[in-house]
Amino acid sequence: MEEINIVKIGGKVIDNEDERNKFLAKLSGIKKNIILVHGGGKVANQILTSMGIEPVMVGGRRITDAETLKVVTMVYAGLINKTIAARLNSLGRPAVGLSGVDGTLLDAVKRPVKDIDYGFAGDITSEGVNAQLLINLVKDGYTPVIATIAADKNAQLLNINADTVASTLTAGLAKHVKTNLFFCFEKKGVLMDANDDNSVIPLLNTQNYPELSAKGIFSEGMIPKLENAFRTVNQGVQKVIIGNSNDVEKFFEAEYAGTLICK
Amino acid sequence: MEEINIVKIGGKVIDNEDERNKFLAKLSGIKKNIILVHGGGKVANQILTSMGIEPVMVGGRRITDAETLKVVTMVYAGLINKTIAARLNSLGRPAVGLSGVDGTLLDAVKRPVKDIDYGFAGDITSEGVNAQLLINLVKDGYTPVIATIAADKNAQLLNINADTVASTLTAGLAKHVKTNLFFCFEKKGVLMDANDDNSVIPLLNTQNYPELSAKGIFSEGMIPKLENAFRTVNQGVQKVIIGNSNDVEKFFEAEYAGTLICK
């Protein structure tokens, strides 16, 4: 197998049906091996709110109590996962929707309580990735679509940060096959100035990142994404790009788009 | 491959955590190839009701409007599917949760409106089963766990009757591999007298079925199960049993339990 490209989507690409279908149509046309990892967008929050549960986020991460866990499992692994898989299939790109639970794709442990109790949130490692199941599906011509729910050894379901799932899967796969990781979101890349969409930082590496980080230019939601990206770069992945979902085709080509993350 | 056994569960085995875990522990111990098909139990109805939507059933089949479709997709393909897969994994039986959407396991069409408009309910055929995906997973040592949501060619999600999924999958697989089909439910088998749990009919075939059916002894919920069972028997499956989920181990042995359905 040549290589596997892990594409992570979230936000508007999931929430907005038109945006989602436009994105999935683009993705369908890319003649490369792809694994798609999706977050939950606003749908989970909408359903939580309609059930009288207030969504709680700290540092870009969700606090998952027992009821929230049920809802995110339903929304992520059920509604969103199957909606995306059905669309890809209808576009002629055979897709299999999975979660971290399935085939123990992701061997998770409940996050220990330190300063913050994240509730039923899980931590994962690249050693706990069932790479073979994904590689077999990709070899058979399928695009795995991964919802970010996993379980621990006692069958306790756990909610996993979607950026973490994407980067950990990539690192786990990198032990067996060449991998690239593309984080797709609303902005054109990591911005120097959050208010200027054209201030994309073309390259972030271990030299300039600490300096820029110290200046406080990265948003609360961006920091875990960047931490995951840097962790992955150190685990053998070829290329990590953070960029706009509209530019997804460019990430697969030499053509420049987004922010390239390097060692 | 020797053979594949399709086990369908519903009702209390899904609703009640203790019953479910007891059943899954039994299933885990059975050293045979198994595909588990699950319905939705009462959980979907509870969530529908909590959202102010009244569940509607006609002839043992759900009427699925747009909101109901969302809820059943979330509950069946999300919460229940992943809860079961996680439990099987934790019991040492590697499981992969899927729905009819995934890899187009089930190629569905929206049920045409005749006397009754079932809404987003789907019909499926054994020709539209992706047997190879299931066979590959079973060969790799996984127990596929199937939620009864599928999609049509335009990515419209559809709710499929769980008994129909079990029998259609079995018939589709029967073209490639020997199959058996076990419908597990609360009763010890198909009863001659609904009020007498010990009135199990040991054998139903195309000779005695029409006669008993004419007497009106079969309940509204039993009729689609029986129709599906007979359709399957005519499509090459080795053995169809309708019986109590507590007796699941017996169905795999020569030991007699439940109602055997024959030509």
Overview of this protein structure:
With 263 residues, chain A is α/β, with parallel strands linked by helices. Chain A has a single domain (4-261), classed as Acetylglutamate kinase-like (Carbamate kinase, 3-Layer(aba) Sandwich), CATH 3.40.1160. In chain A, 36% of the residues lie in helices and 20% in strands. Chain A has an eight-stranded mixed sheet with strand order 5-8-2-1-11-13-14-12, with helices on both faces. In chain A, helix 3 crosses helix 4 (66-90) and helix 6 packs parallel to helix 8 (222-233). Chain A is globular. The two termini of chain A are 25 Å apart. The mean pLDDT of chain A is 92. The A-B interface holds A 50-51, 70, 73-79, 81-83, 85-87, 89-90, 94-99, 101-104, 133, 136, 140, 142, 149, 151, 153-157 and B 50-51, 70, 73-79, 81-83, 85-87, 89-90, 94-99, 101-104, 133, 136, 140, 142, 149, 151, 153-157.
Beta-strand share of residues of chain A: 15-25%
Mean pLDDT of chain A: 92
The assigned structural class of chain A equals alpha/beta
Considering DSSP H and I runs of 4 or more, what fraction of the residues of chain A is helical?
Answer: 25-40%
Secondary-structure element sequence of chain A? EHHEHEEHEEEHEEEHEEHHEHE
Biggest sheet descriptor of chain A: 8 strands, mixed
What ranges of chain A have pLDDT less than 50 throughout 5 or more consecutive residues? none
The geometry of chain A reads as: globular
| Interface with most residues | A-B, 39 and 39 residues
Distinct helical segment count of chain A:
9
CA radius of gyration of chain A: 17 Å
CATH architecture of chain A: 3-Layer(aba) Sandwich
The fourth-level CATH homologous superfamily of chain A is: Acetylglutamate kinase-like
CATH topology of chain A: Carbamate kinase
End-to-end separation of chain A? 25 Å
Oligomer: homodimer
Q: Which strands sit side by side, in order, in the main sheet of chain A?
A: 5-8-2-1-11-13-14-12
Q: What's the domain count of chain A?
A: 1
Number of strands of chain A: 14
Quickly name the level 1 CATH class of chain A. Answer: Alpha Beta
